[in-house]
Amino acid sequence: MALPGYSQQTGPFGNKPLRWHLNQDSTRWLALHTYVQLWARINSNNPGTRIFDNVEKTTTDISIRRFRLGLQGQLTENLFVYTQLGINNLNYLSPRGTSADLLDAYAEYRFSNALEIGGGKTAWSGLSRYSAPNTSKLLSYDLIFLALPTNDETDDLIRKLSLYAKGKLGRLDYRLIMSKPFSVQNSPDFDPVPEENIAKFADNASGRLYSGYLKWELDGSESNKIPFSDGSYHGGKSIMNIGIGLEFQPDALWHLQNGDTTFNDMLLWAVDFFLDKPVNKGKKTTITLYAGYFNYDFGPNYTKNIGVNNPANAIDPAVASLNGPGNAFPAVGTGESFFTQAGYLLPPMDPSGKMGRLQPYFSFQYSDFERLDDPMVYYDMGINWLFHRHLSKLSLNFQSRPVYRVTQDRTEVDTRKLMLVLQYIIRLE
Prior knowledge:
Oligomer: single chain
CATH architecture: Beta Barrel
Structural class: mainly beta
Number of domains: 1
Shape: globular
Low-confidence stretches: 1-14
CATH topology: Porin
Number of strands: 24
Mean pLDDT: 93
Order of helices and strands: EEEEEEEEEEEEEEEEEEEEEEEE
Strand content: over 45%
Radius of gyration: 22 Å
């Protein structure tokens, strides 16, 4: 019997992943990965924002947006396991002694390339490409919030307790998932009182959630070893695909209609397109494009405000907007949305490539939510400085978001607020 040994195999960009081979022919192995994502930020706060008892119009802070430590392994020729610890949004408002959480813990069995079945706490999900994003390998500085419609409602950082089947049938890459959603009572936004004609997640929802995503690989092929999708391959591959996804949970939400409690099914679907293609192989330039259409039905007038890594923790209700405190805005809701994102990888800044490369990008969301009289328009503009692809990169991002004022007859855009983020990611894999 061969003794377990440590070995490194050079990756596609010259890096050597940390991998321990467990047999002579290297078909069984364990691999370690870790990364940290650091933010320095200036945020123009929403109206009425307070930090405890102090009014703050602008907040500057430094935070750990994400930390991950994971171990994955091919224990037999057919059995794969994946575990990951992590923490999100460790900022100056976080409680002392904040510890890492168990984010992923699942196992899957491979019958063939066409069928693998697994289960556990996992990010395998349907709906869209970026409903399970690879957060250290994105094109922009952060997530597409629209693609994560139930995050922190019935998900735990997009993870659920699930059984799933996945595989590839020729050019068709598929995933089908059945999940038991986490209890909404433990959500930080839980409100146990239903409202008249405004849907909320119901506190007695006990059903299952069903989701799936079908992706047709028009050009190239992407790995489906883990659920997370990359935002750009930086010229390492030529990829073009189109996908369609669905998410459904019966009686997931409720509202009052003329004083009577009415339950609403959650039915969400999306169609999206992804392109990552070298433009000039000599100059090593690459274009990246993503576009998606999202149709969400949560019930009447549902909206969800998202304030990622929120730098505020209180609000003055007398002057508050619909957005809530800090940097929150209505990113998800019942209605139709369009999202697009594009980037361009420029040639190396010096002949040796040691200075790295620049990658400007742009993201744009247009949403026609049922509750809002004015469309929700959000955009990011930024640039990545890639010292070593996704393994070491610095990003500068400018965000513009709308602030909604609620009057007796209308919910309309009153002003716009800005956020500037300087981010650094370092990854070991």
